[in-house]
Amino acid sequence: MDNWAALRACKQASATRRITDLFDDPARAAEFSVTLSDAATGPVHFDYSKTNIDAETRAALIDLAEASGLESRRNAMFSGEKINVTEGRAVLHTALRNLDGSLEVEGEDVMPEVRATLARMESFARDLRDGRIRGAGGRITDVVNIGIGGSDLGPAMAAIALAPFHDGPRCHFVSNVDGAHIHDVLDGIDPETTLVIVASKTFTTVETMTNAETARAWMARTVRDPARQFVALSTAQDKTTAFGIDPARVFGFEDWVGGRYSMWGPIGLSLMIAIGPMNFHAFLKGASVMDQHFLTADLAQNMPVMLALVGVWHRQVLGYPTRAVLPYDQRLARLPAYLQQLEMESNGKRVAMDGSELEIPSGPVVFGEPGTNGQHAFYQLIHQGTDIVPCEFLLAAKSHEPALAHHHRLLAANCLAQAEALMTGRSLDEAKALMKAKGFKGAELTRQAKHRVFPGNRPSTTLVYPQLTPAMLGAIVALYEHRVFVEGVVLGINSFDQWGVELGKELAVQLLPMVDGSKPAEGRDGSTQALIAALREMGI
Ligand code: F6P
Q1: Which residues form the signal peptide (predicted)?
Q2: Would you state the pLDDT for residue 101?
Q3: What CATH number should be reported for the domain holding residue 517?
Q4: Based on the structure, what is the number of domains in the chain?
Q5: Is 495 in the pocket of ligand 1 (CB under 6 A)?
Q6: 268 in ligand 1 pocket by Cβ < 6 Å?
Q7: What is the mean pLDDT of the chain?
Q8: What SS3 state is found at 54?
Q9: Is 204 a member of any domain?
Q10: Would the CB of 194 count as within 6 Å of ligand 1?
Q11: Radius of gyration (Cα) for the chain, nearest Å?
Q12: By CB distance 3.0 to 4.6 Å, which of 42, 379, 452, 532 could disulfide with 521?
C-alpha cells in the first residue's frame, strides 16, 4: 500500500470516531503536542491533540514525509542547492539569520556579504535613530516603506506585532497602487523629516515604482535634494542607481532570498529602524532557534513538520479546502495576511516539480482575523456551516499590558472556549434540554433546538507561548516558513516560484491604454470591453 493509500485508510477509520473519543487516552494531550524550549525564545508549545489524528495516522503521515524525501530536501535547502528549479535559484533565507560560519553558493562563501550588509543596516539604523542621519528639516520623525507583497507584508506585520518595542521614528507602509494609500500616508507627515524606503527585490514592480515616483515628487516640492532622504532595498543596483538613489544608501541582497521570505535581511530595515538593531537581532535569533530545531529534531517531535503534516491531513487527505489562522493576540492582526502570501503564493500550485498535474489538492485557502473579533463575524460558519474549517489558534500567556491582565485572561478563556466548542459541540439532546428549561414544548422545542446544535468534531491546533517578543515572533514566522516548505515537499511542488502572478500583470499593461482611452478596447472579451466603456462613460 502506498503512503496515500495508507492515509486514505486512516481517513476511513477516522470517520467512525470523534476527536473527543481520542481523549480516552489520558496521555493524549502530552503525546500529541510538541514543545520547543530555548533560552532565547522561552518555551513554545504546539498542541494538535484536538484533531482526529491518532497514533496510526501520525505514523502514516510521517512515513509520507519520509518517502517524499523531506530530510534530504531540507538539507538541500539549508546547504544552498538550487532547489528553486523553475528559476534556477538556491533558497537561503535561513542564511540571513544563521549568521555564524560559512556557506558556499556556486563556490563562493556568501556569509561575509550577509554579515557586512547586516552591519551596514545596523549602523544606518543607529545613525537614523540617534539623529545623526537627518532630513532637510532635522531629525527624521517618519519612515515610509514603499513596497508590496513580500517587500511590505513582513515588516508591516512585524512592526505592528512588536509595537511594545517600537522606540524609533514612526513607520508607515505604502503598498497599494491605489493613490488613496500613498495620499493618506503622506498627508500629515512632513517631507523635510521623512525618510522614504523603496523596498523592491526587482525594482520593477509597477505599484512600487509608481508610488516611489509619487513620493519623490511630493518630497521635491519642499526638499532640494530628495535623493538624500531615499533608501533602496533591492537586488538590482543598476535600477536603484537609475532611479537616482545613492549606492551608499542601497542595501542589496541576492536572488536566493525569495520576496515572501525576505524580512530577515534588508527588507526588514524599516522594522530595524522601528525596534532598534538589538531587538532585530533577537528576532533573527528566534528564527534561527526554529531553524536548528527543524534541522535536528526527530520528525515526530519536529514542530514545523508536525504543523505541516496536520495541514496535509486536513487538506490533502480529508479534503478541507480552507484553513483559518486565529491569533488571540491583537498585535498579530496582520499575521493572517502575511501567511496568505507565504502559504498561498508558495503552495497554491497545480503542477508538480516534473511538470505533471497534481493528483491531490494544492495548498488550502488561508484566512483569519484576531480573536475575539472573528468570533463576532465568521465563527458562525466555522461552528455550524456545512464546510469544516481547521482552525489554528495562537495565544500568549502574558500580554504587554500588566495593568490590564483581566483583559488577557478573558482573551485566553475565549480562545480555549472556541477550540473546546469546536471539538465537543452540543448535541440535540443537550440543545433540547436547554430549550425545555426556557419553556419550549413539543414540535417547537425540537425546531428551536435544532438551530442550537453544534456538530462539534471540528479540528483545531493551538500554539501557546509566554509573550510576543522579537525572538518569539522570529520563531513563529520561521515555524510557518518551514511548515510551508514541508507541505511543498509532500506535494512535490516548487514552493519558491510564483508564476501565477504573471498573467494578470501582463494583461494590466495591455489594458492601461484602453482604460485611459489612448487605444480602442477592440479584441478584448465582451465583458471587459463593456466595463471599460462603462468606466469611460463615468469619467475614469
Ligand atoms: O507579484 C508577486 C511578487 O513577485 C511577490 O512574490 C513579491 O513579494 C512582490 O511581487 C514584490 O516584488 P518586488 O519586491 O520585486 O517588488
Answers
A1: none
A2: 85
A3: 1.10.1390
A4: 2
A5: no
A6: no
A7: 97
A8: coil
A9: yes
A10: no
A11: 25
A12: 532
Quick one: pLDDT at residue 1?
62
Percent of the chain topping pLDDT 70: 100
Which pLDDT band, with edges at 50, 70 and 90, does 486 fall under? very high
User: Which of 233, 263, 280 lies at the terminal end of a domain, its last residue?
Assistant: 280
Residue 208, ligand 1, Cβ within 6 A: yes
Q: Residue 498 Cα, ligand 1 centroid: separation in angstroms? A: 9
Cα 2 to averaged position of ligand 1 atoms, centre (Å) = 38
Range of the structural domain that residue 178 is part of: 101-280
Query: Has residue 264 been placed in a domain?
Result: yes
Catalytic residues: 345, 376, 505
CA distance 345 to 496: 8
DSSP sequence for 265-330: TGGGHHHHHHH-HHHHHHHHHHHHHHHHHHHHS-GGG-HHHHHHHHHHIIIIIS---EEEEEEE-G
pLDDT for 416: 98
Q: 318 in a domain, yes or no?
A: no
- Indicate whether this complex's ipTM tops 0.95: yes
| Ligand 1 atom closest to residue 501's alpha carbon, by position in its atom list | 1
Q: Is ligand 1 within 6 A of the CB of residue 202?
A: yes
Q: Read off the pLDDT of each residue in 33-44 and give the average, rounded to a whole number.
A: 97
Chosen domain end from 258, 280, 302: 280
Cα–Cα dist 482/468, whole Å: 20
Question: Which CATH number belongs to the domain containing residue 139 in this structure?
Answer: 3.40.50.10490
pLDDT 10s digits, 141-170: 999 999 999 999 999 999 999 999 999 999
Measured by CA distance, the residue closest to atom 9 of ligand 1 is 149
Does the reported pTM lie above 0.95? yes
Residue 218 lies in a domain: yes
Exposure letters 421-455 (e unless 16+ CB within 10 A, then b): bbbbbbeeeebbeebeeeebeeeebeebbeeebbe
Whether 267 and 151 have beta carbons less than 8 Å apart is answered as yes
**Single-letter amino acid code for the residue at 341:** Q
Residue type, 252: G
